[in-house]
């Protein structure tokens, strides 16, 4: 099976590359913007194509002969209108996959409802809709995940830094919003198994482990780290102030911090049981085990 992996220099793509390389029956091809970013001990076991989803010719070349293509890209770090860039990127990718007769696109986006979605999440939803818009020509398997717990993930680093640095936290009132975090180990397993799934339909698959509020998430993380923390939700904390606070206390950029804070307002819980139906053998890490695994791999 020839597999094209985009986003291989990103958080999820990097992890998935390692997992795909474990399977010797896969011919792995990476599509990256800058080849120098791929410092890989397995370089002889993969092909690297340089390009961008905004360069149609580079996409055409990279997708030649590919059976399954992973789309693990977003434009949030780019200058300009990231929503429009995300739309264009997804359209170019879909068109190039159809032209190259790729059989399946696998995409990971975010959990949440359109009506209450932040700008960032809305753009992730639009990307999934575009990639799924030609089911008669190509199949798309669209995963949706909320907070991903793993060492190096922005959300986990925020949880870890806040819990370790602040015995008492004044938080926005949205910490009562429900969420369903998932271990990065499980996310990678779903993405990996999706390439072999025996169905030709388009699918939307929501993935998440235990349901809890953001407040519980922080308090439970503090207990797992052996710390006692107090959270006081107050109504006056504005999104801007909360984002600056995260910028000050955690290693994430202002752009990521404000996207995450905006995202706190809407519930990120699963809306279908397709994960259980199509992947009955994947057993999910509990929140406790996900945090422990992330701390162990620091
Ligand atoms: N991380 C999470 O906690 C999380 C949670 C839920 C869902 N997701 C979803 O998972 C997917 C991947 O997220 P991530 O966290 O792995 O992102 P990330 O770490 O920011 O990586 C983004 C990747 O996209 C590449 N890229 C951006 N624009 C490109 C373009 N025009 N052409 C080619 N490559 C381009 C980047 O390449 P460069 O290295 O060249 O910049 C990078 O490899 C996203 O759809 C995201 O919504 C992530």
Outline the structure in words.
The protein has 298 residues and is an alpha/beta fold. The chain has a domain at 2-148 and 182-208 and 269-284: 3-Layer(aba) Sandwich (Rossmann fold), CATH 3.40.50. 40% of the residues lie in helices and 19% in strands. The chain is built from eleven helices and 13 strands. The chain has a seven-stranded parallel beta sheet with strand order 3-2-1-4-5-6-11, with helices on both faces. Helix 1 links the parallel strand 1 (2-6) and strand 2. Helix 3 (82-99) packs parallel to helix 4. The protein starts with a strand and ends with a helix. NADP nicotinamide-adenine-dinucleotide phosphate (NAP) binds at residues 6-7, 9-13, 33-34, 37, 52-54, 72-75, 89, 108-110, 124, 145, 148, 153, 155.
